[in-house]
Amino acid sequence: MSKATFGLAAAAAAAIFMGATGSAQAGPVLDRVKARGEVRCGTSTGTTGGAFHSIDSAGQRRGFLIDMCRAIAAALFNDPAKGIIQGMQFVQSFTAVKTGEVDVVTWTHTYTSSRDGNLGYEFPVVYYYSGQSFMVPKATNITRLEQLSGAAICVVSGSNIAAVIEDAFKQRNLTFRPVSFENTDSMVAAYRAGRCDAISTEPPVLAGYRSTFRDPAEHVILDVLISREPLAPMIAEGDFEWLNVLRWVFWATILAEEHGITQANVEQMRRTSTEPEVRRLLGVEGDIAQKMGLSPDWAVNIIRTVGNYGEIYDRHFGPTTPANLPRGLNRLWSQGGLLFVPPYR
Fold first, then answer.
1. What is the pTM of this model?
2. pLDDT 10s digits, 264-286
3. What's the CA gap between 201 and 44, in Å, rounded?
4. Domains plus CATH for the chain?
5. Which helix (H) or strand (E) element contains residue 85?
């Protein structure tokens, strides 16, 4: 789980590990990943991440952010299974990507000025636009932010959830009491046990928490956002080749949706399309991919094994899922959303 800047306890933790690890480790991460034969993605250890990340009954990790890691592996190795998920605590993820324990963090980390400008991280691209909201028991009849004044609100230590709430509440002359937990599982368990009046994070994550409850209909996600949260993969700064690859892996899924390229038709499109951008993207002509250190069929491998952005979104957030969240800002630019990709030429 992520929020605007470190804040509160996370600020102290950040200072400690920044001092311990020094400046960001520049270097050829892409070469290291290729030599290893797998890409290591840091994400939550929790089981209650819902549509973003969860662990199913068979112990398999599922979710939108897991598919982002699988897409990187598909692009590099034509094998999504070579995206290795390493679970860790929220604060640990910042250290892990600095030291090279993981190659990228695919989590709900918010792209912020301090993380990008002062703390030595890069955010290649925004893969989900969201904001912070609240979930409360339906029996409380709470529908407005003002009704949460004085409430005990569950948060994760090391995230900046409490700081975002504090900003929003100060603006409205409201108060609250944060109740902190080490990880999401213990936080959600405490909320369900009635140890706090509300829980706060992005609506897709709240919907995921709620879907695990025995009585999901008894909990309400408020129709209010108190922040803007552009969620992005996170890497250590200084390796622009790696940054560029990650950026285009994600952008390829958007371009595919824009051109109507799906898991079912990608091979046919590669054989028959006469559209120049499609032919370049699918490796029929041009050498853009090779200059980025990728094989000509890198995008085909992503789309064939993981899907385009719309397919990935529907798999985890769509109308047949427990989350059932409209795409909203995460629609294509041509449909009124914010997903916009530079020309592939």
1. 0.82
2. 999 999 999 999 999 999 999 99
3. 15
4. 1-130+229-337 (3.40.190.10), 131-228 (3.40.190.10)
5. strand 83-88
* pLDDT digits 0-9 by tens, 159-198: 778 889 999 999 999 999 999 998 888 999 999 999 999 9
Q: What is the mean pLDDT of residues 135-139?
A: 96
> Which token pair is 224?
């209010």
Q: Among all chains, which residue has been given the structure tokens 């703390």? A: 119
Find the helix or strand (DSSP H, E) in which 76 lies. helix 64-77
Joined together, the tokens standing for residue 114 give 């301090």
Beta bridge partners of 152: 177
Single-letter amino acid, residue 315: R
pLDDT category at 10 given cuts 50, 70, 90 is very low
Nearest to 164 by CA among 42, 46, 10, 325: 10
- CA–CA gap between residue 199 and residue 186 (Å, rounded): 12
Largest Cα–Cα distance of the chain, in whole Å? 62
At residue 85, what is the residue type? I
